[in-house]
Amino acid sequence: MYSFNNDYSEGAHPKILEAMTRTNLVQNGGYGLDEHCTRAREIIRQETGSKDADVHFIVGGTQTNLITIATALRPWQAVICVAQGHINVHETGAIEATGHKVLAMPGKEGKLTPDEIIQAFEYHTDEHMVQPKMVYISNSTEIGTQYSKAELEALHRLCREKELYLFLDGARLGSALTSTVNDLSVKDIAALTDVFYIGGTKAGALFGEALVITHPDLKPDFRFMMKQRGALLAKGWLLGIQFEELFTDGLYYELASHANDMADILREGIRNMGYTFFSPSFTNQLFPIFPESVINTLQKEFIFSIQEKEEDRSVIRLVTSWATRQEECEHFLSVLKTCSM
Amino acid sequence: MYSFNNDYSEGAHPKILEAMTRTNLVQNGGYGLDEHCTRAREIIRQETGSKDADVHFIVGGTQTNLITIATALRPWQAVICVAQGHINVHETGAIEATGHKVLAMPGKEGKLTPDEIIQAFEYHTDEHMVQPKMVYISNSTEIGTQYSKAELEALHRLCREKELYLFLDGARLGSALTSTVNDLSVKDIAALTDVFYIGGTKAGALFGEALVITHPDLKPDFRFMMKQRGALLAKGWLLGIQFEELFTDGLYYELASHANDMADILREGIRNMGYTFFSPSFTNQLFPIFPESVINTLQKEFIFSIQEKEEDRSVIRLVTSWATRQEECEHFLSVLKTCSM
Amino acid sequence: MYSFNNDYSEGAHPKILEAMTRTNLVQNGGYGLDEHCTRAREIIRQETGSKDADVHFIVGGTQTNLITIATALRPWQAVICVAQGHINVHETGAIEATGHKVLAMPGKEGKLTPDEIIQAFEYHTDEHMVQPKMVYISNSTEIGTQYSKAELEALHRLCREKELYLFLDGARLGSALTSTVNDLSVKDIAALTDVFYIGGTKAGALFGEALVITHPDLKPDFRFMMKQRGALLAKGWLLGIQFEELFTDGLYYELASHANDMADILREGIRNMGYTFFSPSFTNQLFPIFPESVINTLQKEFIFSIQEKEEDRSVIRLVTSWATRQEECEHFLSVLKTCSM
Amino acid sequence: MYSFNNDYSEGAHPKILEAMTRTNLVQNGGYGLDEHCTRAREIIRQETGSKDADVHFIVGGTQTNLITIATALRPWQAVICVAQGHINVHETGAIEATGHKVLAMPGKEGKLTPDEIIQAFEYHTDEHMVQPKMVYISNSTEIGTQYSKAELEALHRLCREKELYLFLDGARLGSALTSTVNDLSVKDIAALTDVFYIGGTKAGALFGEALVITHPDLKPDFRFMMKQRGALLAKGWLLGIQFEELFTDGLYYELASHANDMADILREGIRNMGYTFFSPSFTNQLFPIFPESVINTLQKEFIFSIQEKEEDRSVIRLVTSWATRQEECEHFLSVLKTCSM
């Protein structure tokens, strides 16, 4: 069985394990106050063109989301996102557990539109309702789509005007930035948001997300909040080392490109056989629609999840990663071909 | 200017103020441990046919909702309600502030359907998502509609089957129970829910809601939670006195009937002039749809809120109460008539 | 049985009930946005000499404490108080339930000293510990003592220097301000704190605390927080009316003086019989130390609480109020006298 | 500069890195539902003699503490610990941030005594105060001391009697279990507590704590809470692999013994030069008391923390680990010797 179930089924790119092994017995200060983290922070500031940014390394995405949002919001404030937003559905109420309402809007192809933000903003008129104060988007989105530069600029302008913080969840940022339809650079991302993160877990690291805070309001005392929520890793340099490796010689983009290339093979093959997709994804998550019989056949050799079950056909989710093997993509297509005959 | 803005624009029924004045200098124990509360609890147990119920008196509805829900749920559990649910919209995120997600479903005429509960329940499959554990409904609802006995029985059965607590917000229970289309008794309400409350604030009291807990899981240590959330009123007997008065000689139902009678006058008058309504309400909240010009004229003499603004007409909300004067209802209709000519 | 158990055993001063009765059927806007509250706010601004203060009316003390503290603090911040502080012991963890640690210091005669604040402040050095940001004191204190002007000035100076908010719980402020040893005015209180409240519940109102916010950081969006925690009373004018009455013609001080006068009678009588006190109180709470046998005799005719049980003697708490009858104080002393013979 | 600053200054025992490298490209299921975790759970159940225990792997100690405590307690309940307890001082209010009060008692040599638990339990008498429901202890403690079997049995009996959950923080359990004065086995620990954890971070793992839940009340839905607090590691097998290695061939105990051996060298050397200690530790944390001049000299070559500053001498903290080199301990003593001449 080969798994297209997610992009965190394997460990880390070998360079990362090698760097960990090489430095294993060197003593380091704890909790991210070490030379590796210092260097990784500097590299990321340069890479993102945001020399005054605060950069923090956090083990996982849910932690990063909940800490960032709970730091940004006062108790009566809320965050706007799309209904499929990871924080709205797949974090077991982590945001609400910090005391904040998530205001979910339908979205369009998984993306939040300026109109929806205005609608949410204007609906909440007084102290009997929560006060929207942050916008959360994911790039790439939960259904594989991605924001264009024009779209992100429009969100940015609107958020500035309404005094809303714009937070971009970049758990799969690499895949978005290296897709064939992308027109955003990581510098654009930094310039057009108030805080965002560069996902490592799904991009070749063992674990780790690099949070980049550019808005001055969100910087003070951030490490207090990290510690309180259990997110100051004792051996914090393990995070620093991984981001040093990822952002040396473009490894991060190289790995993300590989994931996209593998998805391209799958997508084109599937499309050529006449199947359609739930969403127009050019990133490492694909959502083809297959009849039950086809799914049953595929499940004999591949692991993947069912996104939406309909009567006699379903949307499945196929995820590629830095570690996905091309021959397995090709094998998937050949199995699919047998179903289609 | 006469106000149809809400059902809490006046003080209390005179009998209540008289009882408070009569007992004013008698010493009482604090925090609801006094003879008035004891007697009021007993009266309510009899009235609701639930002799083993725990009865607590709380100053306001938001407090009652947040304390009840936060007591019932474990940290990862969520409450299902309709999108218009008071807890979802008009409590400034009070439930989320206790750490719990509100799962809002569209509803039908302001009422939650069994199908929607099943849908919400089945959507949440594992530990990556919140766990639905309570259903919150209002009777009458936020848009004036009300549950029939058959509807409440269906919800009750489903909740039992799925091990969901059923919580009924009765801020306007009196109006529901005395409406012309009602087929539920307060004993039915007690038998078909796990916890519910009888609203006093909108029904002739100065303030106060009587919470009736019938499910044994929800009873232990409830007063700890009340105290922690600031809901143990020091002079708790003030709550006891009010419910003693309301449930002596049927005052509660009499006052609610008056509110409904006034709403009936308004509704029939408005309908006869050819206007339609946003929802089919037979309780003390009406939602007629008027052109802007009509609304402008009415606003010169009456206070009411705009529920939903559309292009050239809007839904307004008219609320009657135990204190509403019949001549003001008639005057409203006469002003409306001038608009319609 | 006559109760010296607390200062909230009776209803309200008759003027308050009369005012409520007089205005009972006048329509008012909800949630504190009415003319009575507006007028009461203005009266309190003048009384406290703080013309720019925000004034809010809240039903009870625990609500007032938790809302004020949770509004002032960011998630990782803590509040310093004495070990006996109401928020530390007698609010069922209400402050912790909003997410904040209470840093309890021993105190001296129930009062927090500058040295203790410095100690707590300096102990918390980095992001592995909470960040002290507020100081909470009560005046009069939980054991009946009170701050002198010099003491409050010293706390004020220190808090300014350390950028700590200074919050004064004035549930029993009237008793402190009218005691024979007081040298503080309510204007001093306003000038030397960042936020404080004037207690009504224990001072002749049915219920209600008037919160006075002078520090600009603590003002924005305060009503959002009140609503979220269930503290926007629907019929908010009931609070406004009470404070209008209390601060017309000095009723508030008159009632507090009466309570102190009654305590003076008790204190002097007890002292003259040779008993000692747990704390040097000149306010309406006395803590005499009696042998068990004396306590047993007193308990046959009077209700009071045991503060601290020791081997063969205990500290009891006697509380007088605006409603305490002089003849009952004298009767208490005469019963005590029989024990002592 | 050599660091005795903590026991998490180096990476992991080489066997752990080798196992990670060996399995790096094998696909695994996410979130701890993989074969390594399954096997590690089984090994730990056998090792601890608790075949029905639920075992969860969590990245760090603060996360483990806050999740365990917040799962065990209802909103109004509190946890008892010693004043120095990690949860009371060094987790930035993580427990309070979940809504619960920490009831800190003085302790004796860093250990909680049955008398203190009784005192805390009896002090909290009604719904105006929090309800103690859990006892938190650390073994070894924050100041290097450890519980004897008799002491743990006494705590266990008392907790059973009072219906308090007993939770043991085993961040440094290995050091306690292998110290020369220990008389407890890990099976005893499991039998005498309701939930405890075996620390990996400070015992040769890169990171990770193995939580062992034996009390049935604490088991249901635990993974929901883990997910909500961001503690379900995507590549969860990394935790499983580490505990597989640690509990194969006794590596865990071997590494802990080494840390203790190194501490023994330091302790005996320091003692022989006539210095005294703040606490009687036989584990890997030592708290010698040195004059300032000695500390200044030592700081030129070694990194360590100052535990308590006094006038002209201070308590310092020296921590050894699985990776501590014997020659550095000897060098420390030789430098110390030069100071003492």
UniProtKB/TrEMBL annotation, chains A, B, C, D:
Q: Check the record and name the InterPro entries matching this protein.
A: ArAA_b-elim_lyase/Thr_aldolase, PyrdxlP-dep_Trfase, PyrdxlP-dep_Trfase_major, PyrdxlP-dep_Trfase_small
Q: Which Pfam families match?
A: Beta_elim_lyase
One function term, GO molecular function aspect:
lyase activity
Does the keyword field hold Lyase?
yes
Which keywords fit this entry according to its UniProt record? Lyase, Pyridoxal phosphate
**Key word rRNA-binding present in the record?**
no
| Cofactor field | pyridoxal 5'-phosphate
Any idea where the Aromatic amino acid beta-eliminating lyase/threonine aldolase domain is?
14-287
Could you tell me which PANTHER family the record lists for this protein?
A: L-THREONINE ALDOLASE-RELATED, LOW SPECIFICITY L-THREONINE ALDOLASE
- Entry's family note: Belongs to the threonine aldolase family.
What name appears for this protein in its UniProt entry?
Beta-eliminating lyase-related protein
Organism of provenance:
Clostridium boliviensis
Q: What is the lineage of its organism?
A: Bacteria, Bacillati, Bacillota, Clostridia, Eubacteriales
